[in-house]
Amino acid sequence: MELLADIGGRPGIDCMGFCKYCYFKAVRDVPPFGCKHCLPITKGCHYCTESVKESYPGFKPVQMVVQELNQTIHLNQEGIERITISGGGDVSCYPDLELLTATLTQLEAPIHLGYTSGKGFNRGDEAEYYLENGVKEVSFTVFATDPLLRGEYMNEKHPEAALSNLETFCSGSEVYAASVLIPGVNDGDVLRQTCDDLEAMGAKGLILMRFANTTDQGLILNNAPIIPGVESHSIDEFAAIVDEMNKDYSIRITGTPLWDPETGAPFAIVNDPKALSMLPSPTMEATILTSRVSAPLLGSIFKSLDAPVNVIGVEKDIGCLITIEDIEKLDLTDVKSTVIFPGRAFVHDSEIKDVLNRDGGDRLVRRGPDKLTVDGEMSISMTRDEVIQREIEGLSELIDMVNMLGIPPKN
Ligand code: SF4
Fold first, then answer.
1. Would the pTM count as exceeding 0.85?
2. Which CATH class for the 2-256 domain?
3. What element of type H or E holds 393?
């Protein structure tokens, strides 16, 4: 099993000040969304009111983190494959990170430092301690290897120290770097320089994250725009940048929400007739709601399966950030009598049912699987076969739901 050492912490506060592009900047109060964790009669649970905003009270004391881990270990008798240290703040700012790492290393499993920007390191040699104490993998928010840009955009006091630690981590562990790509700031020549540097340092890969600046791009916490006046790359522009960088550099470069040139994710299965033939045959009629990024890909899968299923993309780029407002905007004309929506969408089951029946219909509305594919953030450490396997599992579950809940086609 994989263990999570959740250290807590608040974005912006427990990471030495907000990065200019942080999605948790200026988060305002939003009514509960509703989600898959809510009780059927109550819209709003801890997950969709608090966790979605990563609103922890602060970093947890190290004793609490260890105690929570011990509970998990006692409840599960499986072997420990990996331990990830992560939280809402920046891992490098956790005051007891050295003590926690030294404690966890006794479990003799590889340790992964979950997203850290390195902003909490100020000497430049901190990485050595972690490498000596079992850290084998680091997810490092690099943004750019230009220290001035890091200083300006990441609100960082010691960018050289962070970059020096990045280099040390690269020399002794698997480093997956990440950059939120802001047009005109860290794309173009700056991105090329960053890729040159990461390649020279020996990073395993770079995950490019398309910057979201509007609600339909995924900012659901009433805090758009994050940077006024910035127009994000279009999905096509972004995918072209990922493609070009991956072609020009030896390190693996993927993008989120899409794309991964090496595995073909998301929905690599679209171009794999053999894998498509391993899916169950969808025989019943249903509508599948999804994000507008996934809709053409998912639609083409059901088309090649010759299924009586239509796929409708709502006005949101990410499926698990779909909210009830996106559903309210739908024209119901083409929505069939069975509807399946993304498992992790932020909607309450009874509310979406009402909205999808506001034309007087009696549609059966069900939450689908959590994941049908993987994005570049996950696929960067996967093989193409692993991606395809995940997709076969997710899509088979979806098709089984269609066949169980759908109605027979009319002709
Ligand atoms: S380090 Fe991450 S969580 Fe903290 S302000 Fe920057 S983007 Fe937000």
1. yes
2. alpha beta
3. helix 384-405
